[in-house]
Amino acid sequence: VKSLLTAHTDTYDYLPYFYSRVFEYEGSPRKVWWQFFGDNVGETVEVGNFDPKIATFWIESGRLKGVLVESGSPEEFQLLPKLARSQPLVDKAKLASASSVEEALEIAQAALQSQRRKLHG
Asked: Are 63 and 91 spatial neighbours (Cβ–Cβ below 8 Å)?
């Protein structure tokens, strides 16, 4: 018992993550798979029309709480956990007016970079 009580433990880093590759077919011109990071709370902003991508952003009190991207690139998928973990303040109207998934992710990434600059001075 003493070793349990005196053991050094790190904080558990909990980040919800869901994905599907069910519809990813070898040789298919369109990779139909999705990844979701974060929490699905708050209002949603959907961008894209499955031609060839779609993204959904969950925003609560101005903060990005969760993000789903379908048919994204490896670079886009790498951005998702960073966004969900940092929960940057985002301009919902600007995000909703994005003409593509790529543009919406650039808006979210800019919000993330702005938050980091404020934190690190």
From this structure: no
